[in-house]
Specification:
Structural class of chain B: alpha/beta
Strand content of chain A: under 5%
Number of strands of chain B: 10
Number of strands of chain A: 0
Largest interface: A-B, 19 and 27 residues
CATH topology of one domain in chain A: MetI-like fold
Order of helices and strands of chain A: HHHHHHHHHH
Oligomer: heterodimer
Structural class of chain A: mainly alpha
Helix content of chain A: over 70%
């Protein structure tokens, strides 16, 4: 028993550190983008088009990961792309979490008509195909970073709502909730001080997952050109451009794709790792 | 004659019977408690015994008003509490406490022992009165920093008792509090409770399916079967001359150490 727990803890540690390291790298790159990026993200030079990364023949010094067909530096654009990805991940993730959690807690704890209204709303919401819904929303709101964030929040709050409601419902059946009632706690205090701490691990895991999903949705939207302007560097936009020249310059597609993959994976693993590490019940 | 702390008259509880609910319309009501009447005098220990499904837990939860009775009356200290709303019940709550059957589920797993005991009193976990309550149930004051899952079953149940007595209540309901424990922890918890009843002059209702546990603690016993009281007698009389066949059945179910059998 004790040995098994030790093994779980060690693995959780490696997972937390590796994902945390990558996320820290992305955050630093995004915050200090003008200082650390070797080139101007928007500077075009057709004479330097489709340069390969540094370990291949014919590379040009200063363009570490090569250039795209317009001669823009891939590494620089990736670093600036991290800004968009992080802003979307944080703002959309947190806003989705707050709205979904609040509604889920109310539905799961108070039941009755509140639960019925919120439950029906979630059912109706989930019947819309999410990507089409997002595209439709952006068509109405206009493109831009804030529209992307709003679209993600409007679509994805149901994910939090459903999970938090189920967990709250589950916790509300426990005797410690009855015990709080016997002790004369108000309903609101029971919900906030007794139930919320028990739902929190689920919320944290879901929040980090949602941040990863937000990054992907932003990439999808910039892939179909519905995010920020075409010129501005985003990972999804780079993937879309790289697709057209994949046989001549695979690196334009591969590096942003790898960054996207690692970031989304890290968000999910970071959440799991945090829970394993800081949940007193699992510790 | 001592004044009764609890006076229960014709108490009825029913729930909707969802297994026989028609497709349209309301489900038929299923009676769980079929008109119970008894008193709990101040300073006495009442045992409530019965098999599973006899309604003893429902009776307990109705007494502490976790569920709303559908008929009859419950008077606590001369005040009718049968139909009080949650709001109106709150000032009375601290006088009516409860110890739960499953200490794992009744202690919030994410709060420390200090916060669990302290929250009931509106105190911080470092407060002296919290460690006093822990000492009263025989636990070291250092336990305030522990989480429930770090404790043994017997220790958890002591925390449950500490939380209940810390409020200085007039009445405590103990719902099957030793049935999840091994025999030696059972004895310890029962000894502790017995001591506290004497020391603090508690009025206690003790629910159990095990008459041997009841015999140690209670002055009077109510035997329940299928939502009704079949026998209500002082403990001595009940063990000497059980009047109802169901009581005899329960008495026969107690395993008695037989000196003629050698291991």
């Amino acid at each position: 028993m004790l040995d098994g727990r030790g093994a779980v803890k060690r693995r959780a540690g490696a997972r937390l550190w590796l994902s945390g390291l990558w996320l820290a790298l992305v955050v630093l790159a995004a915050v200090f983008a003008p200082l650390v990026s070797p080139q101007d993200p928007l500077a075009q030079d057709l004479m330097l088009g489709r340069l390969p990364p540094f370990w291949m023949p014919d590379h040009e010094p200063g363009f570490w990961l090569g250039t795209d067909s317009l001669g823009r530096d891939v590494l620089t654009r990736m670093i600036y792309g991290a800004r968009v990805a992080l802003v979307v991940a944080l703002s959309a993730g947190v806003a989705t979490c707050l709205i979904g959690t609040a509604l889920g807690l109310v539905a799961g704890f108070y039941r009755g008509w509140a639960d019925r209204i919120i439950g029906r709303l979630v059912d109706i919401w989930m019947a819309f195909p999410p990507v089409l819904f997002a595209i439709l929303l952006i068509a109405v709101l206009g493109t831009g970073l804030s529209s992307v964030v709003i679209a993600i929040v409007v679509i994805d709050w149901t994910r939090f709502c459903r999970v938090v409601r189920a967990e709250t419902l589950n916790q509300s059946q426990m005797d410690y909730v009855h015990s709080a009632r016997v002790a004369g706690f108000t309903r609101l205090r029971t919900l906030v001080a007794e139930i919320l701490p028990n739902v929190l691990p689920v919320i944290v895991a879901l929040l980090t997952l949602e941040m990863g999903i937000a990054v992907i949705v932003e990439a999808i939207l910039s892939f179909v050109n519905l995010s920020v302007s075409t010129d501005a560097p985003t990972w999804g936009g780079m993937i879309a451009e790289g697709r057209t020249s994949i046989y001549q310059a695979w690196w334009v597609l591969a590096f942003p794709l790898a960054a996207l993959f690692l970031t989304v994976l890290s968000f999910a693993q970071f959440g799991e790792g945090l829970r394993d590490r800081f949940d007193p019940v699992l510790r | 004659m001592v004044e009764a702390l609890f006076r229960i008259e014709d108490l009825r509880v029913d729930v909707p019977d969802m297994t026989r609910k028609p497709l349209f319309g309301a489900a038929p009501r299923l009676e769980i408690l079929k008109g119970l009447s008894f008193d709990i005098p101040r300073g006495t220990v009442l045992g409530i015994v019965g098999g599973s499904g006899s309604g003893k837990t429902t009776l307990g939860r109705a007494l502490v008003r976790l569920i709303k009775p559908s008929g009859g009356a419950i008077a606590f200290d001369g005040k009718d509490i049968t139909h009080l709303s949650d709001e109106a019940m709150r000032p009375l709550r601290r006088r009516i406490q409860m110890i739960f059957q499953d200490p794992m589920s009744s202690l919030n797993p994410r709060l420390t022992v200090g916060r669990i005991v302290g929250a009931a009193l509106g105190l911080r976990s470092g407060d002296r009165r919290v460690s006093e309550a822990l000492e009263q149930v025989g636990l070291p004051a250092a336990f305030v920093r522990r989480y429930p899952h770090e404790l043994s079953g017997g220790q958890r149940q002591r925390i449950g008792i500490a939380r209940a007595i810390a409020m200085r209540p007039d009445f405590i309901l103990a719902d099957e509090i030793v049935s999840g424990l091994d025999v030696s922890s059972q004895a310890q918890v029962l000894n502790l409770l017995q001591g506290l009843v004497k020391e603090l002059g508690l009025t206690l209702a003790f629910i159990s399916h095990d008459l041997s546990v009841i015999r140690r603690l209670c002055g009077r016993v109510i035997v329940m079967q299928a939502g009704a009281i079949v026998e209500d007698a002082p403990t001595e009389a009940l063990f000497e001359k059980p009047a109802h066949p169901y009581t005899r059945e329960l008495l026969d179910a107690i395993p008695s150490p037989d000196p003629s059998i050698r291991w």
